């Protein structure tokens, strides 16, 4: 594909497939063939894309397609079961009359206001028994979604603690006005001096990334804002895009100014599709104000535009090279690196991929200067971090702290008592117990992309770890064997122990497998997928030991249960052919 060839985003494959999914409640094969002709793409490429993303289906879903979050913070699968019973449909299936399908999906980013679900892609939060009852009535009455109570679809920001970024007013255009008074080199120097590091979790120096990209040769340069926050327990980008979109877009434009890009893309996770109308409205206002387009703020040669691409349900697309593959209308399989995106990214051109929070911070730094930013924070972690706090506390929501804050301080602020464990940085992060609550947030101690999940003493922590293992097994893209097979084996091993059939052998085997998955996987997903299991084995061994059988070994594989399908197909069920 040539640089610049993806200009009309209405023609983006993911968007066209989304429209088909809405129209037919699945993607018909004939539509794939038609689309292949129209978009001049191989049929196999489109089929591959349809099969890759969770929100596209080859077989019909219901006219109401309901997906319950399966996250430990915003999910409630018991509620899913209740709605299934009310509507007479089994989980994962579509009712015979085609009216409704109900299933579970990975975290939908509503961890501060769960339980939550998506219906035809729209979010309903704060589910209750009464709300489920009414949802069932509306489905049975075939009430159009637009006539369901509007307050059900309202999503709150829930900002509990402001800091440097959330608490400083941002005048639209002010970062750009400050920037054009400096040469791009001077702005780059200021960003570098601020010590700003990527807020997605990995913490690569933002100034360094921009510099590498600026120096890379290419026909075009690109800026991508990674708004595909899919880590369970994370929802801070949702708030930034809801209430601070100007700062985010301005950060993207500044990055374009520094690296010499004329085009930026916001890659938005599908679960936040409800934000699109307002995001487009903000972009349009920015165009009218001369803050986007040709000759920004009247400066000849400063041209920059932004488009939005919406994902389709794939956690792996939060990994920058997968995200770029997805933007190029392909399956989101992580690339082999090097080359890194800064030299060979979108369409093979130099590309900066930055997190939403990073770009919003860059915009504020352009206005207030590097010192304003780096006087807060710790030695190796300048500035503040926005946290998504969820789980067992009285006030879940958004909290912004200078790096270096202790875990205990956060727990005190959000009203968490009698805490058993915290998952810092989401399932791919670190699981810690009370003896580590004096540890500090920061790249030198506990790094985090922002997820902060609290588990009280009443929680079945092993069930939580098992939930995370199921998440990774589901989200593994399948490209490399250690992750594809290893995450499934870890999931099975945990299921076995949770159900009371595990032995010490299984614990040892799980440790061996978790270490292998961590060391041998191709990308960050696999390299971190085993973290919850390893952390739990190391810090909470009793959780496992209490559930172990006394025997040394019990088979992993339930042969009798596995024969069930053969019995069904052959209509034979001989009593003697059952294993005790
Ligand atoms: Fe895919 Fe997992 Fe391998 Fe990453 S580690 S490439 S997600 S299979």
TrEMBL record:
Q: Name one Pfam family in it.
A: Complex1_51K
Keyword Endoplasmic reticulum among record annotations = no
Under the heading InterPro entries, the entry gives:
NADH-UbQ_OxRdtase_51kDa_CS, Nuo51_FMN-bd, Nuo51_FMN-bd_sf, NuoE_N, Nuop51_4Fe4S-bd, Nuop51_4Fe4S-bd_sf, Thioredoxin-like_sf
PROSITE patterns found in the cross-reference section: COMPLEX1_51K_1, COMPLEX1_51K_2
Looking up Gene3D superfamilies in the UniProt record yields:
3.10.20.600, Glutaredoxin, NADH-quinone oxidoreductase subunit E, NADH-ubiquinone oxidoreductase 51kDa subunit, NADH-ubiquinone oxidoreductase 51kDa subunit, iron-sulphur binding domain
Q: Sorted alphabetically, which SUPFAM superfamilies does this protein's record hold?
A: Nqo1 FMN-binding domain-like (SSF142019), Nqo1 middle domain-like (SSF142984), Nqo1C-terminal domain-like (SSF140490), Thioredoxin-like (SSF52833)
User: In which domain of life is the source organism classified?
Assistant: Bacteria
Q: Which cofactor does it need?
A: FMN; [4Fe-4S] cluster
The alphabetized UniProt keywords are:
4Fe-4S, Iron, Iron-sulfur, Metal-binding
- Domain NADH-ubiquinone oxidoreductase 51kDa subunit iron-sulphur binding, chain residue ranges per copy: 462-507
The GO terms describing molecular function are: 4 iron, 4 sulfur cluster binding; FMN binding; metal ion binding; NADH dehydrogenase (ubiquinone) activity
What's this protein's family per the entry?
Belongs to the complex I 51 kDa subunit family.
* Name of the protein: NAD-reducing hydrogenase diaphorase moiety largesubunit
Species annotation: Mariprofundus ferrooxydans PV-1
């Amino acid at each position: 594909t040539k640089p610049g060839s993806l200009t009309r985003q209405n023609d983006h494959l993911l968007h066209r497939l989304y429209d088909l999914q809405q129209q037919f409640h699945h993607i018909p094969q004939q539509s794939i063939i038609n689309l292949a002709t129209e978009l001049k793409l191989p049929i196999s490429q489109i089929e591959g894309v349809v099969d890759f993303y969770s929100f596209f289906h080859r077989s019909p879903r219901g006219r109401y397609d309901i997906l319950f979050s399966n996250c430990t913070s915003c999910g409630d699968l018991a509620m899913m079961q209740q709605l299934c019973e009310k509507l007479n449909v089994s989980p994962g299936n579509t009712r015979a009359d085609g009216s409704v399908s109900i299933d579970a999906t990975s975290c939908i980013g509503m961890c501060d206001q769960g339980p939550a679900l998506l219906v035809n892609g729209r979010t309903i939060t704060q589910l209750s028994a009464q709300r489920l009852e009414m949802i069932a009535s509306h489905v049975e009455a075939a009430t159009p979604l637009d006539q369901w109570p509007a307050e059900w679809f309202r999503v709150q920001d829930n900002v509990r603690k402001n800091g440097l970024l959330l608490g400083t007013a941002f005048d639209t255009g002010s970062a750009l006005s400050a920037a054009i008074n400096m040469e791009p080199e001077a702005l780059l120097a200021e960003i570098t001096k601020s010590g700003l590091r990527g807020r997605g979790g990995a913490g690569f120096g933002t100034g360094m990334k921009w510099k590498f990209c600026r120096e890379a040769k290419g026909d075009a340069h690109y800026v991508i804002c990674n708004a595909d926050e899919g880590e369970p327990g994370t929802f801070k980008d949702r708030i930034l895009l809801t209430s601070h979109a100007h700062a985010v877009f301005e950060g993207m434009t500044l990055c374009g100014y520094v690296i010499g890009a004329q085009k930026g893309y916001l890659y938005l996770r599908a679960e936040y599709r409800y934000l699109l109308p307002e995001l487009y409205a903000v972009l349009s206002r920015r165009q009218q104000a001369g803050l986007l387009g040709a000759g920004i703020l009247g400066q000849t040669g400063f041209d920059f535009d932004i488009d939005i691409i919406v994902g389709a349900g794939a956690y792996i697309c939060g990994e920058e090279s997968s995200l770029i593959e997805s933007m190029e209308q392909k399956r989101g399989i992580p690339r082999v690196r090097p080359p890194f995106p800064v030299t060979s990214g979108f369409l093979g051109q130099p590309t900066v991929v930055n997190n939403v929070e990073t770009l919003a911070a860059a915009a504020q730094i352009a206005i207030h200067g590097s010192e304003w930013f780096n006087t807060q924070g710790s030695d190796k972690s300048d500035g503040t971090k926005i946290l998504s706090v969820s789980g067992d506390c009285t006030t879940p929501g958004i909290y912004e702290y200078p790096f270096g804050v202790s875990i205990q301080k956060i727990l005190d602020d959000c009203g968490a008592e009698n805490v058993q464990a915290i998952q810092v940085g989401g399932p791919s992060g670190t699981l810690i117990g009370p003896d580590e609550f004096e540890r500090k947030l920061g790249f030198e101690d506990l790094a985090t992309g922002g997820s902060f999940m609290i588990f009280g003493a009443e929680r079945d922590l092993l069930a939580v770890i098992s939930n995370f293992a199921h998440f990774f097994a589901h989200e593994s893209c399948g490209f490399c064997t250690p992750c594809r097979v290893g995450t499934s084996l870890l999931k099975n091993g945990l299921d076995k122990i949770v159900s009371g059939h595990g032995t010490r052998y299984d614990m040892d085997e799980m440790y061996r497998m978790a270490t292998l998955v961590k060391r041998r996987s191709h990308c960050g997903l696999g390299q971190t997928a085993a973290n919850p299991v390893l952390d739990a084995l190391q810090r909470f061994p009793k959780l496992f030991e209490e559930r172990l059988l006394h025997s040394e070994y019990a088979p992993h594989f339930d042969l009798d249960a596995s024969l069930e399908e053969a019995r069904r197909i052959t209509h034979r069920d001989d009593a003697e052919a059952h294993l005790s």
